[in-house]
Each structure stands twice: as C-alpha cells, then as structure tokens.
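User: Sequence in, structure out. Go.
Assistant: Echoing your sequence, followed by the structure tokens.
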Amino acid sequence: MVIQADTGSSSDTGEEIYEPAFVARQPVFDKNLRIWGYELLFRNSRDVNRAEIADSGVATASVIIDGIAQAREGLPHDKALLINFPRALLLDDTPLLLPESCIIEILEDVRPDPEVLEKLEAIGEDRMLAVDDFTGRTAYEPGYDRILELSDIIKVDVLSMAEERVREVIGGLAPFGKSLLAEKVETREVFRQTSRLGFSLFQGFFFSRPEIVKGRKLSSNQISRLRLMQELEQQEFDPKALAAVVESDVSLSYRLLRYINSPGIGLLAQVRSIRHAVSLLGERRIRQWLRILIMADLNSTDRGIELLRMSSMRGYMLQLLAESYPSPMDPHSMFLTGLFSGLDAILDQPMGRIMHDLPLDDLIKKALMGEADEPARYLQLAKALEKGDWQGLYRLSTDLGFQTDILAGLHMRTMRWGDALLSASLSSGEKE
C-alpha cells in the first residue's frame, strides 16, 4: 500500500508519493540550549515490529533518502542532520548521495576492518562523521583508534554509565580532540553535569520535561496569553470577534498573512482583510493557528519552539487518528489534548496548576494528567513516534487496532502539516 504524503488540504498541490515510513526527529542542543541539529531515525512501516532499523535487511537506502526529504521540510537548512549507518550501508554509495549537511553516524557494532576504514576515509572527505553510542568498550579493539581519528563527533551514552565511568571515557578520548555529544540526557541535572564535564552537544528528552522550581510564577505575558487561550476556548466561533483579536496585534496580523500565503496552505484567493483571511481559513484552522501562535509566545526560545513543534504535531496526529478510527474523543478534543500535552514543559509549571487555569473538558484534563486510560494511550503512541521507540509504537498500534501502513501515512501528513504551519507562521514572528 502506498500513501500520498500531503498536508491534509483539499487544495494540496504536492505530487510526491512515498513508501509508507516513519521518521523520528530528535533535536540536538548546544550548551546554550540552542538547536544545533537533529538526529533522524527511520523505520519502514511494514517492519515496525523489528527491534532495530539498523538491521541491513530492514533499513534501505530508499527509506533513508525519502525520509530525509520528509524530515527536512520546515527545518532550517543550516542545521546538521545525523543519520545512523550500519556497516552494509556504509559500504555502498548511499552516504555520498546525501546532502553535505548530513552527518554519518557509525554504529557501535561497526568493526574497523580495512574495507570499512577505506570507505570512512572517502566519506570523511565530503562530510562529517560521528561515532554513535560510544561507551569505551570498543576503544580496546585493535584498529578502533582509526575510527575515532576519522570522526568529527563522538557520541557518549551517558545514561548507561555512572558519572565516574563517564569521566574515564572522556579522559580516554581527550587525545583525539573531538567534539563530544552526550546522548540519552534525560534530566536537567544530567545536562548540567555533562556540560561541566566538557560535552558541547546534548541529545535526549530532558528538554521536554518541566523544570519545576518552587516559587516560580508565570510572567505577566504568559498569564495574558493563557487568558487569550481561555477566551478562544470559551467563545462561539465569531469571525468578526476573532478578526478583531488578530487585528489588535500587529505581529499576529503579519504572521496570519504570511501563513495564509504559504504554499502548504493551498488557498488561492487574494486576501482583502484580516476578517477575510479568518473566513477563508474557517473555524477549525483559524482556531488551531491561533492556539499554536499563542503557545509560541509563551516560550519563544529554541527549546520552547521545538516543544511547540512536537506538541502541535502530536495534536494533529491525534486529530487524524480520531478521524480515521473509533476514538475516545472527537477530533477537535484530540487535537487540543496533543497540543496542550507539552504545556508543562513549555511553561516549566506542573500540569495540575496549568489545568486549574484553563476551562477544558474534564476528559481532556484527565488525559493530560494521565488519569484517562484510552486517550493517554493515544498520547503514548504519538510520543513513541517522536522518540523513534519502534517497539513501543508497534505494541500500542496493535493494542489500539491501528494498521501500521495507514499510521505511517498519517504520520507523513502530520509532518508536512506541522512543518508548513510552523515555518510559515513562527518564522515570521518577532524572532526574525
């Protein structure tokens, strides 16, 4: 089964046809929590139940090359893309077909035989190399020093080691003078520790968890944005009233016009006014757009925008699932559940405190608090997609009765929708 990847718009002009596949994008941050790049993880939808995409019988060049085209949309082109390569794909010409911004990750089980070293030397002339999941064990293997010498970045799995062992590994790597990337950084404290130890790049889901600080309060700007969110949830759809809200904010007006004229939206009419723009988009799309813009203003850091990217795509994925399968809530409520699932990390506040201030449906609140079982499983599935947790994705899709080929098609639509929305809207805001 082949599914067209589109934005979900009836006026979509894209003609790309992809083999159904899943692509997870995991951000890599620098010490200042600015996004440095992304690691891309791929899985063919028919093989999603296999444990490792790196198996040469599972990962194919076509999945990787098509997946890069999907994952690249909407991302700044100056950001690096890290991609895992098993031995079989290192030895063919696939790495040389990729853009120069792609960094080839050498998996931990690749051995330093002459054929591999010769290929790495050739690849390294055109693009950067990284060693994946380094724990120090392979360093004792004859010839492995040459892999470390050829690489530009060494990724150290800090989750699997005690701090003292991490110090030993760093000490052993010091003579090579390479950039160090701490992967599987799960908490802010580990981020701070690894930063002190000399790592310059960081990957993990520490950025998606709230840092709860006792006594911290929401800023006046965040409070005003939450109040606007309340109004948006309470009022009946009134194009005039919504247009008045947008017109009162120059930044929102500019971003709306930029958004509505972007290729991914598919509206051909010339916009005569903000009110006309609101009526052209319709209730669902204008509400979605405003919610996302309001949330973007709650935290406009790189970390905040990345969290928004993930939670908005999470919301759209849940909406598509609710439109395709029996669902515990209607598509509108499922979208809100996914979108608001990142509010605690965006605001660095407990979810319970945020829910107290928002007039949401009780089932949405329970889902966000982890108290509603079925909606919570939908959220878990969306998060498994984000993390590249293919085993968890297979288990949840099986439990919920989702076909993986259809799920992969919905995932493609979600990525294209989110990237079109965010690149057209957020990039034209005050951060420019």
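User: And one key feature?
Assistant: The radius of gyration is 22 Å.
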